[in-house]
Amino acid sequence: NAREKTIMKKNLNCGIFISDEGFGHMVRQRAIIKELIRKYPSINITVFTSKNIFHLKETFENKINYLNISMHLRSVKNLDGSLNVNKTKNIFKSWKRNVVPWKNKVKVYFKNFDFIISDCVPEAFDLAKEFNIPSFGISHFTWDWFFSNVCKIKPLELSKLQESFNKCDHFLFPPFTPEKILKKYKKKISHVNFIVGGFKTNLKKNKFQKCLIMDNGTRSLSGLINKTVPYLKKIKNIEFYVCIDHLEEKSKNEIYASNNIVPVSGLKKMHEKVEEADFIIARGGFNTISECLVLKKPALFFNEKNNPEISENLRLIHKKERLANLINRNEWGKNFKKKLNSFIKKDGIKINNKLRQTKFKSNGAQQVVSIISKKLKIF
C-alpha cells in the first residue's frame, strides 16, 4: 500500500521526542540516533527536547535537526535532591492544560515523518496516531506508572495520559523495567538489552583502589559530598574521582589541594570515568545502574526520597538480584570511611564476583533499530 511504499523509500524522516527528565533519557536516544545514522546514512532526524539539547549538539553538530521545545511532564526536586511530591503533582495538572497548545505548535512537523521514537512523551503518540505515523516508545518507565505511584493520582484522572500511551504502536523496554508496566503493555512490547553510551568492556582485576563519586541526575548528592570531602582526604589507600560542578567553593578548594582526590567537571567527563573506576558511588538512576551493570562495576547507590522510580530501580538491583549495595544519608560525612571499609571487605567482593558471572549486554540501540526496521519493512 501507499504507506508501506513511503516507509520503504531511501530518505527516511524520523522525529525523536525526549522527556526533559534527568540525563538517561537523552543518553538512550543519543545511542539510538548513532545507530540510525550508521544504518541509514541519509536519514533525516529531528529531535524535540530542551533540557539536554546541548549534549546532543555536542555529539551530532549539524548531522541532525534540533527543536528546542520543552516537554511538560517531568518531576520536581527539593534543594536536597528529594522528590517534591506536591510540585510534581502540579506538573501533571499543568500538563493537561498544556497538551493542546503543545500539539498545535508541533503538529506541523508530523506531515514529513515516516515514524517517530519517544522516551517517553505521551502527546507525541497522540499526534503520531492522528497522522497515521508508526510510533515507538523506548524507556524504562512510563509517565502513567510514575504519576500513579508518586502522587497516588487516581485512574480516572490518569485516563487522558493512559489514552495517549495506548496510542503508541510498540514499546521497547530494557532490563529492570517495572513488572507492572511490562504486564500492562504485554501485547505490544519487545525486550531489549541496555542502551548506554559507547564503552569498552575490557574486564580488569578489581583492586577497589579507584572510586568515582557521581553527583548524577538531579544533583541530590551535592550536599552530602560537600559534607564528606574533608574525610576523603584521610582515606589514603583510595583515589577518588569527584564531580565538582555543583559543590561549594570550600569543597572545591579542598579537592584541589588534596593528593588523593581528582576533580571531574562535566557530565561527559563524569560518565567517562565510570570505565576507569573500580567501584562507583551514585544516586540510583537507571542510566547509571545500566552503565555499572554493563561495565561490571560494584556500586553503592543512594535512594532518592519520595521517588518510586529510584526505589523500584534499587528494589530490583539490590533486594532482588543483589548486584549492588545501598548507602544511606547517615553513612556520609564522618561515617563514610567506616561504610567504605565495610563495603570493600564484605559486600563489594561478593557483588564484584556476581557481576562477573552476569551477561548484561549493551547492544540495546542496535536491537531497537533492527526491530523498528523489521516492523516498518525498511530495506
Structural account:
With 379 residues, the protein is α/β, with parallel strands linked by helices. Helix content is 44%, strand content 15%. The protein has 16 helices and 13 strands. The strands form 2 sheets. Strands 3-2-1-4-5-6-7 form a 7-stranded parallel sheet, sandwiched between helices. Strands 10-9-8-11-12-13 form a 6-stranded parallel sheet. Residues 1-6 have low confidence and may be disordered.
* Poorly predicted parts: 1-6
Strand order of the largest sheet: 3-2-1-4-5-6-7
Outline type: globular
Annotation field: number of helices: 16
User: How far apart lie the N and C ends?
Assistant: 16 Å
Content of β-strand: 5-15%
Order of helices and strands: HEHEHEHEHEHHEHEEHEHEHEHEHEHHH
Protein topology:
Layout: H1 2-8, E1 13-18, H2 24-39, E2 44-49, H3 53-60, E3 65-68, H4 85-106, E4 115-119, H5 122-130, E5 135-138, H6 143-150, H7 159-166, E6 170-173, H8 179-184, E7 189-191, E8 210-213, H9 222-232, E9 239-243, H10 249-257, E10 261-264, H11 267-276, E11 279-283, H12 286-294, E12 299-302, H13 308-320, E13 325-326, H14 336-345, H15 347-355, H16 364-376
Parallel strand pairs: 1-2, 1-4, 2-3, 4-5, 5-6, 6-7, 8-9, 8-11, 9-10, 11-12, 12-13
Helix pairs in contact: 2-16, 5-7, 9-10
Please give a handful of descriptors for the protein shown.
six-stranded parallel sheet; alpha/beta; 379 residues; seven-stranded parallel sheet; 15% strand; single chain; 13 strands
